[in-house]
Structures are given as structure tokens and as C-alpha cells.
Specification:
The chain is 18% helix and 39% strand. The protein has 122 residues and is α+β, with helices and mostly antiparallel strands. It has a domain of 74 residues: Beta Barrel (OB fold (Dihydrolipoamide Acetyltransferase, E2P)). The longest helix is centred in the first third of the chain and has 18 residues. The N and C termini lie far apart (68 Å).
């Protein structure tokens, strides 16, 4: 009984593949702008120097715990490229996404937000 009610056109790849195209056209018609995931900036603290132009950035944020809802700290490290070697450990910097330079480096230094004075604790 179930086999007689379904048709082959319901499960064809053409019908499935055309649905996202229609949604995209609707978004463009409505004036919705989709933002690319590659266009992002991050701000954090420099925690390590890996080489002459490679540094590691620690980005901390507060997220709700999945079970207890209390806000907890979550952190993630990103490697970035510093062409002029203008920042040191402890500086607060802003990085922007760029074309991948290596497996780990996908960001480049935009600006130093706050320079570390003397020996800052990381």
C-alpha cells in the first residue's frame, strides 16, 4: 500500500537539488544578505610565539553550560601571521581571517589593541 502512494519523482535528485536554489532566489528577492563565514575578526591575548612570524592567540568567551545554564568560560587557540613581528606575549590583538598560509595559520594580524607593559602574566 505504501509503495503505490509514493512516486519516483518525489525521491529524484533533481527535485532534492532544486530546493536550495529556490530558497536562495527567495532570499535574494527579499533582500536578505548572507554573510560569509570567512569574513571574521577575533580579539584575544597572545600566549605563544611559535616562530619568527607565527604567534598563538587565546580567545576567551562566556557560554551557558548545557545542563546547568550557568555561564562558564570557554577558550580556543588560533595561530596567526605577524609579518612585522609587532606584538609580543601578553598583548591584546585583533586578527582577521585570510587565505590559509599553512594547516594551522588561517588568520593575520590586523592591529594591536593594547600593548603589554613590562612582563605581563599570560
Amino acid at each position: 500500500m505504501f509503495a503505490s502512494t509514493t512516486t519516483s519523482t518525489q525521491f529524484s535528485t533533481a527535485a532534492i537539488g532544486s530546493a536550495p536554489a529556490r530558497a536562495t532566489r527567495r532570499c535574494r528577492a527579499a533582500g536578505v544578505v548572507r554573510v560569509s563565514a570567512a569574513a571574521q575578526t577575533l580579539e584575544g591575548k597572545v600566549v605563544a610565539v611559535s616562530g619568527s612570524k607565527s604567534k598563538t592567540l587565546l580567545v576567551e568567551r562566556k557560554v551557558p553550560h548545557p545542563k546547568y545554564i550557568k555561564r562558564v568560560n570557554a577558550s580556543k587557540k588560533f595561530m596567526f601571521h605577524d609579518e612585522d613581528d609587532s606584538c609580543k606575549i601578553g598583548d591584546k590583538v585583533e586578527v582577521v581571517a585570510c587565505k590559509p598560509m599553512s594547516k594551522a595559520k588561517k588568520f593575520t594580524l590586523a592591529r594591536v589593541v593594547e600593548a603589554c607593559v613590562n612582563d605581563c602574566a599570560v
